[in-house]
């Protein structure tokens, strides 16, 4: 087996673009393993098995630390459903195809790719519908950390290590279903476009796809992390005339202005509920509110900050177990409440388009990245996220 502690020159690909490895070879590499809830990640030497039928093995180049990763590790069973340990977290990343399994015809070694926690098989009823992006190919399995055959491709000393959402971007190599992988242009910088694997796509799409923000409208975005800032950007791109950022961390306000926020509000600066503050500020409520925190109480506040006659609220923040409190009257008066998953994008076909928009300077990505760290400092990245000192930390693998 290769010892990945030793730098070796990468062989040039032949005209047939053969893998630099034997596709049947087990790869030994580094990964950040979560052994149990509430404990820091541990850098381990893991083994990544060859891809099976309809699977692709990729070398992960860059990964982002998302709040969902932190929440699962430190607040499992509070806002998240239980998933088995040990596992390798990380669901926002980008890399290069190393080898492909049997019956894979759409990817070749050397392709630049973004792994996806939301598949797109292109054949099911949901994929064929313009109303949803909720493909369920291999869904039940990947949600509990395994692939189509019920096992993971990552192991440690013979013990199965589960793959978070079927991805596991905090491993130098991983294997994903070919329906959960987007091929992107060869000149895309992987240490930037990895953001389109989760946070930016989710927030941006919440505004432009799900809310369908209109020109000259008034918007409020609750939570100014990566998802929230992407929602602010979406509102700005859609032509909103007033974009109000809401966060309890004023250090994020300057960054929000970069993405298009016209003003920001700190709920802690007011004695009345933030929804009442916004209704007063806007003389009746905002046209669109996007919740990007994942807190049921903030979801309620976002919903109640919209106009009673025609306001629209989109929930982009993630929680799997929370219960939102909504007064029926607030719905009856004309408001709408919607959820969004991955921003409404058809993952396999739309992520490459978002990469193209970034390359054409129609979409900001660089501005989200506040820190860059190697894999062995991933726990530092988690602390930066927890304390609100980072927007996105890129982990170099």
From TrEMBL:
<dbReference type="InterPro" id="IPR011032">
    <property type="entry name" value="GroES-like_sf"/>
</dbReference>
<keyword id="KW-0520">NAD</keyword>
<keyword id="KW-0560">Oxidoreductase</keyword>
<comment type="function">
    <text>Alcohol dehydrogenase. Catalyzes the NAD-dependent oxidation of primary alcohols to the corresponding aldehydes. Oxidizes secondary alcohols to the corresponding ketones.</text>
</comment>
<keyword id="KW-0862">Zinc</keyword>
<dbReference type="GO" id="GO:0005829">
    <property type="term" value="C:cytosol"/>
</dbReference>
<feature type="domain" description="Alcohol dehydrogenase-like N-terminal">
    <location>
        <begin position="54"/>
        <end position="184"/>
    </location>
</feature>
<dbReference type="GO" id="GO:0008270">
    <property type="term" value="F:zinc ion binding"/>
</dbReference>
<dbReference type="GO" id="GO:0046294">
    <property type="term" value="P:formaldehyde catabolic process"/>
</dbReference>
<comment type="similarity">
    <text>Belongs to the zinc-containing alcohol dehydrogenase family. Class-V subfamily.</text>
</comment>
<dbReference type="InterPro" id="IPR013154">
    <property type="entry name" value="ADH-like_N"/>
</dbReference>
<protein>
    <recommendedName>
        <fullName>Alcohol dehydrogenase 6</fullName>
    </recommendedName>
</protein>
<dbReference type="InterPro" id="IPR036291">
    <property type="entry name" value="NAD(P)-bd_dom_sf"/>
</dbReference>
<dbReference type="GO" id="GO:0004022">
    <property type="term" value="F:alcohol dehydrogenase (NAD+) activity"/>
</dbReference>
<dbReference type="Pfam" id="PF00107">
    <property type="entry name" value="ADH_zinc_N"/>
</dbReference>
<feature type="domain" description="Alcohol dehydrogenase-like C-terminal">
    <location>
        <begin position="226"/>
        <end position="353"/>
    </location>
</feature>
<dbReference type="InterPro" id="IPR002328">
    <property type="entry name" value="ADH_Zn_CS"/>
</dbReference>
<dbReference type="Pfam" id="PF08240">
    <property type="entry name" value="ADH_N"/>
</dbReference>
<dbReference type="InterPro" id="IPR013149">
    <property type="entry name" value="ADH-like_C"/>
</dbReference>
<keyword id="KW-0479">Metal-binding</keyword>
<dbReference type="GO" id="GO:0051903">
    <property type="term" value="F:S-(hydroxymethyl)glutathione dehydrogenase [NAD(P)+] activity"/>
</dbReference>
């Amino acid at each position: 087996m290769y010892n990945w502690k030793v730098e070796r020159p990468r062989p040039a690909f032949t005209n047939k673009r053969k893998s630099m490895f034997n596709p049947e070879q087990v790869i030994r590499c580094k990964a950040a393993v979560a052994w149990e809830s509430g404990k820091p990640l541990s850098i381990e030497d893991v083994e990544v098995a060859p891809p099976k039928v309809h699977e692709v093995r990729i070398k992960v180049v860059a990964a982002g630390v998302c709040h969902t990763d932190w929440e699962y590790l430190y607040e499992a069973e509070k806002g998240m459903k239980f998933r088995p340990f040990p596992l390798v977290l990380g669901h926002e990343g980008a890399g290069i195809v190393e080898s492909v399994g049997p019956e894979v015809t759409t990817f070749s070694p050397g392709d630049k790719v973004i792994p996806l926690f939301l598949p797109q098989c292109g054949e099911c009823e949901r994929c064929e519908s313009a109303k949803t992006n909720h493909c369920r190919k291999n869904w039940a399995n990947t949600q509990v950390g395994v692939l189509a055959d019920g096992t993971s491709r990552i192991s440690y000393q013979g013990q199965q290590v589960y793959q978070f959402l079927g991805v596991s971007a905090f491993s130098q190599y991983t294997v994903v279903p070919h329906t959960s992988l987007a091929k992107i242009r060869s000149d895309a910088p992987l240490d930037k476009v990895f953001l389109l694997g989760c946070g930016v796509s989710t927030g941006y799409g919440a505004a432009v796809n799900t809310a369908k923000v209109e020109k000259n409208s008034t918007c409020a975005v609750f939570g100014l992390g990566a998802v929230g800032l992407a929602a602010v950007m979406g509102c700005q791109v859609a032509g909103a005339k007033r974009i109000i950022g809401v966060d309890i961390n004023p250090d994020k306000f300057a960054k929000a202005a970069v993405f298009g926020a016209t003003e920001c509000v700190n709920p802690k600066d007011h004695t009345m509920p933030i929804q009442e503050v916004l209704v007063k500020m806007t003389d009746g409520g905002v046209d669109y509110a996007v919740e990007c925190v994942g807190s049921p109480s903030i979801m309620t506040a976002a919903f109640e900050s919209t106009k009673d006659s025609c306001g629209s609220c989109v929930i982009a923040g993630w929680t799997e177990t929370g219960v939102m409190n909504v007064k029926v009257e607030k719905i009856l008066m004309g408001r709408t409440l919607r959820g969004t998953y991955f921003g409404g994008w058809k993952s396999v076909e739309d992520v490459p388009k978002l990469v193209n928009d970034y390359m054409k300077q129609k979409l900001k990505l660089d501005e989200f990245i506040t820190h860059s760290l190697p894999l062995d400092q991933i726990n530092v990245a988690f602390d930066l996220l927890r304390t609100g000192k980072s927007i996105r930390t890129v982990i170099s693998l």
